[in-house]
Amino acid sequence: MPVALIIGASRGIGREYVRQLLARGWDVHATVRDDAALSALRAIGAKALKVDVTRAESLAGIGWELDGVALDLAVYVAGVYGPQHQGPMSPPSQADFDTVMHANVLGAMSALPLVAPMVEAAGGRLVFISSGMGSIAETDSGYGWLYRVSKAALNMAVKSAASSYPKATLLAMCPGWVRTDMGGEGAPLAVEESVAGMLKVIEAAGLEDSGSFHDYSGRTVPW
Ligand code: NDP
């Protein structure tokens, strides 16, 4: 039975990864931050553990809980958007900067060396949910300034780590604009469609694709 780890699975895209992988018969480990989400995931058959990606000792719990487990797939989904209307006309506050960069960048950079060896053990895929808003090449506005900066930094973290883990396929992935708490009700994509698309792209990806950036439809997103 293939084994997956989903980091940030309480709701939205992360929870849908858990749901679809369980439906395919995978053994799914999933992290959440609170007891209600822990119970909800256990009720549907996931092996849930509590992790706050902004707390180093909490992230380290992944290593203890999954000691010796080889992961066919690990997905770092946890992320925050930050201030809704913040743009280049005003710099982010120190508090907003810390919150967004910690969850989106430092959390991912801390999880990576913890999880990548487990993924290498299975010759699997290690995916970081980024955003098209982190593409420097496709940026034509300052809307969501801090979030864009964080996802561009995440992209560099993934790309620059790929050569250090030659037996794992490291991918940055944009889920599209998805109807979740973050994406809002006006987003065009249902979460089911986004995750099904990403899983198709992930399944098709091999070691030669490590260090690349794709969206849920398989399009290569320019850095
Ligand atoms: P949601 O806001 O619905 O969910 C965010 C998830 O991240 C929740 O599970 C949340 O847990 C978790 N999370 C946030 N901070 C932490 C933390 N410190 N530790 C652990 N978990 C944390 O967002 P989406 O599902 O829409 O987004 C998921 C990912 O996809 C994000 O990285 C986002 O940037 C990215 N993305 C989303 C798009 C969209 O249109 N929706 C577009 C492009 C990218 P909790 O419930 O405990 O807060």
UniProtKB/TrEMBL annotation:
InterPro entries: NAD(P)-bd_dom_sf (IPR036291), SDR_enzymes (IPR052184), SDR_fam (IPR002347)
GO molecular function, a single term: oxidoreductase activity, acting on the CH-OH group of donors, NAD or NADP as acceptor
Pfam families: adh_short
NCBIfam families cross-referenced by the UniProt entry: PRK06953.1
Name this protein carries in UniProt: SDR family oxidoreductase
